[in-house]
């Protein structure tokens, strides 16, 4: 049995900045790094962004560049510092705390800020001086206190362990500097839009960092997630044994919530397995955005289900600003909006009407008779137009997209009935609008999947239609906002022009 204690080194990238809003300056710092066991030799070939003993490889042959195996990934944010020096000291102190707490062996800091090295070399004699000066900078009282704490942490490191600095690596680019910049962006957002002053150092396994769990059902063809926060208990209520999530698509690059335009769609997912990331963001929104008037909320799905947000969902995925949650990973008209309350109220009401309409479809599906009819609703199965099913040599049924349903296919024709029509009525289902996108269908693996079109024929001279995707795990209803109305022709009504 090998009882050898592993010798763990750490590489961390630190970068600080300042921004001015009005007459107030905001100082902040971001950091990214990793730990590795010095005794383990990395098996990867030396290539761009491969982790080495001196940081992620950037092509610099002047460095040792020994490939290593990453154990943990470190992320750091220091928001709302009072000075540039305070931001640097806070960041350095968090790193040193971690090194000593976990008895790491050596530390390499990649940074453009040479002051950091000076902070690690302060001697006890300086503490008695008034005023205290490091280099050309005179410390204020808060900085003096931080300097004392840094000195104590450095004393614990002692002579047997090393703290090294790389002041040129920050200019080489690469993954380390990019990810440190992401943390810097986060710290800036917190500083600009929030009041949180807590420095946060988060440790994750490499697997969890690179591939955070985003448990989102890809059948959903939408750009927005709609939800209500004024009654949190209602959010988790089940319908027919399913959790319910509301979605929609707005016009590209626009926030025309509730507008009746042809490319706006709505959809609803009834699922037996809750979507954890949405539940967490819902709870986060409830706690941080006041909503006494019961406005509908909208989340930008392009970012809600991103890896960047997933990494932060248990800490600070966004910062509350009035009726919005601001995230650093989104650029939208200069304001990085992750979640917002929909105003004016009338737009919310219109969206609610469409979403309630899908609950009516769900009820009809549950109560349909042997002829697939309930009231004015009739269901038509079109599974064979979307999928093919093949049984392999092991007797396992495999699901594939129908070859006719290729990337060039923009519509699917379906013939339906209407009580006032003398013949079958053809309707064209537009891919991405009346039915989910092809890639969404391609995400389904359940070989028992069914796809249905449902028509509402209560109108004497027309019908509306929607699409359902049914599996053992979920029911997904998708519809266009206004382009799903099919008006009967005079010939279909048995009339002459």
Describe the protein's architecture and organization.
With 497 residues, the chain is an alpha+beta fold. The chain has three domains: 8-208, Nucleotidyltransferase, domain 5; 224-347, no CATH class; 368-487, no CATH class. 25% of the residues lie in helices and 32% in strands. It has helices at 84-101, 115-120, 141-157, 175-193, 206-210, 232-235, 276-288, 301-304, 307-312, 345-367, 383-386, 438-442, and strands spanning 8-21, 24-37, 51-52, 55-56, 70-81, 106-110, 133-134, 137-138, 162-166, 200-205, 224-228, 238-239, 242-249, 265-271, 296-300, 319-321, 324-326, 337-341, 373-374, 377-381, 387-391, 397-401, 411-416, 425-430, 450-456, 462-470, 474-480, 485-487. Strands 11, 12, 13, 14, 15, 16, 17, 18, 19, 20, 25, 26, 27 and 28 form a 14-stranded antiparallel beta sheet that branches. Helix 1 runs parallel beside helix 3. It starts with 7 loop residues before the first strand and ends in a 10-residue tail after the last strand.
List keywords for this structure.
single chain; 497 residues; alpha+beta; 14-stranded antiparallel beta sheet; 28 strands
Distance between the termini: 93 Å
Strand proportion, as a percent range, falls in 25-35%
Q: From the helix content, strand content and strand pairing, which structural class follows?
A: alpha+beta
Radius of gyration: 29 Å
Task: Say which CATH homologous superfamily of the largest domain is assigned.
Answer: Ribonuclease H-like superfamily/Ribonuclease H
Shape: elongated
Number of helices: 12
In total, how many beta strands?
28
What is the CATH topology classification name of the largest domain? Nucleotidyltransferase, domain 5
Poorly predicted sequence stretches spanning 5 or more consecutive residues: none
């Amino acid at each position: 049995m090998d009882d050898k204690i592993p010798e763990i080194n750490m590489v961390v990238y630190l970068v600080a900045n300042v921004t001015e809003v009005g007459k107030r300056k905001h100082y902040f710092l971001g950091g990214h790094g990793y730990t590795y066991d010095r005794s383990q030799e990395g098996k990867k070939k030396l290539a761009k962004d491969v982790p080495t003993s001196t940081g992620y490889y950037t092509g610099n042959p002047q460095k040792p560049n020994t490939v290593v195996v990453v154990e943990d990934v470190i992320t750091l944010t220091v928001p709302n510092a009072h000075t540039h020096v305070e931001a640097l000291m806070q960041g350095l102190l968090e790193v040193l705390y971690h090194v000593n707490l976990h008895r790491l062996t050596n530390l390499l800091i990649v940074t453009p800020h040479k002051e950091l090295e000076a902070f690690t070399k302060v001697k006890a004699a300086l503490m008695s001086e008034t005023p205290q000066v490091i280099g050309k900078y005179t410390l204020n009282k808060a900085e003096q206190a931080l300097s004392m704490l840094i000195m104590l942490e450095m004393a614990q490191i002692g002579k047997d362990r090393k703290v090294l600095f790389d002041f040129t690596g920050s200019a080489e680019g690469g993954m380390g500097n990019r990810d440190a910049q992401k943390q810097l962006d986060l710290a800036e957002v917190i500083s600009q839009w929030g009041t949180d002053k807590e420095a946060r150092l988060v440790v994750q396994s490499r697997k969890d960092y690179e591939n955070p769990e985003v448990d989102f059902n890809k059948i959903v063809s939408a750009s927005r997630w709609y939800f209500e926060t004024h009654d949190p208990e209602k959010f988790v209520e089940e319908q027919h044994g399913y959790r319910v999530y509301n979605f929609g698509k707005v016009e590209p690059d626009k926030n025309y919530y509730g507008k009746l335009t042809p490319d706006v769609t709505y959809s609803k997912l009834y699922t037996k397995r809750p979507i954890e990331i949405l539940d967490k963001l819902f709870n986060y929104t409830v706690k941080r955005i006041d909503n006494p008037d019961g406005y509908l909320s909208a989340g930008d799905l392009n970012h809600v289900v991103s890896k960047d947000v997933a990494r932060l969902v248990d800490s600070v995925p966004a910062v509350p600003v009035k009726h919005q949650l601001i995230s650093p990973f989104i650029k939208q008209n200069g304001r990085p909006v992750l979640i917002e309350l929909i105003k004016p109220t009338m737009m919310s009401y219109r969206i609610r009407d469409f979403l309630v309409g899908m609950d009516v479809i769900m009820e009809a599906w549950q109560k349909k008779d042997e002829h697939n009819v309930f009231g004015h609703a009739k269901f038509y199965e079109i599974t064979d137009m979307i999928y093919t099913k093949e049984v392999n040599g092991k007797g396992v049924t495999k699901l594939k997209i129908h070859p006719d349903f290729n990337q060039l296919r923009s519509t699917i024709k379906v013939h339906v009935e209407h009580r006032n029509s003398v013949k079958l009525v053809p309707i064209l289902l537009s891919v991405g609008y009346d039915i989910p996108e092809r890639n969404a269908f391609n995400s389904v693996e359940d070989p028992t999947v069914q796809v249905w079109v449902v028509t509402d024929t209560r109108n004497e001279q027309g019908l509306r239609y929607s699409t359902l995707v049914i599996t053992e795990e979920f029911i997904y209803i998708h519809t266009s906002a206004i382009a799903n109305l099919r008006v009967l022709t005079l010939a279909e009504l048995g009339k002459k022009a």
